[in-house]
Design brief:
The protein is mostly helical. The protein has three helices and no strands. The protein is globular.
Length: 90
């Protein structure tokens, strides 16, 4: 029951991130990456509990990608020097 809630919350977070991007109201870089990270982790946890390994794997990898985005965003804003030009405007 708890993992179902975690999975649905994760799905909702991923949909929020995607919908805001499509609507042109892009979330700030750090928020976008954090929402993706939490959403993917939520679905991964729920999928693992249900032995849905393809979904768990996909969202596990998505969590790693989003985690890298969070780390890069934090480093860019702590040091003040963007890692690459694409991150300069976030």
């Amino acid at each position: 029951m708890v993992t179902d809630f975690i999975g649905w919350a994760g799905a909702g977070l991923l949909l929020i991130a995607y919908a805001t991007t499509l609507s042109g109201k892009k979330l700030s870089g750090g928020v976008f990456h954090a929402v993706n990270l939490l959403g993917a982790m939520g679905i991964a946890v729920s999928s693992l509990e249900k032995s849905a390994y393809p979904a768990a794997s996909l969202n596990g990898v998505w969590s790693i990608v989003a985690f890298i985005g969070v780390v890069r965003w934090v480093l860019n804003h702590r040091v003040g020097t963007p890692i690459n030009a694409d991150d300069a405007d976030e």
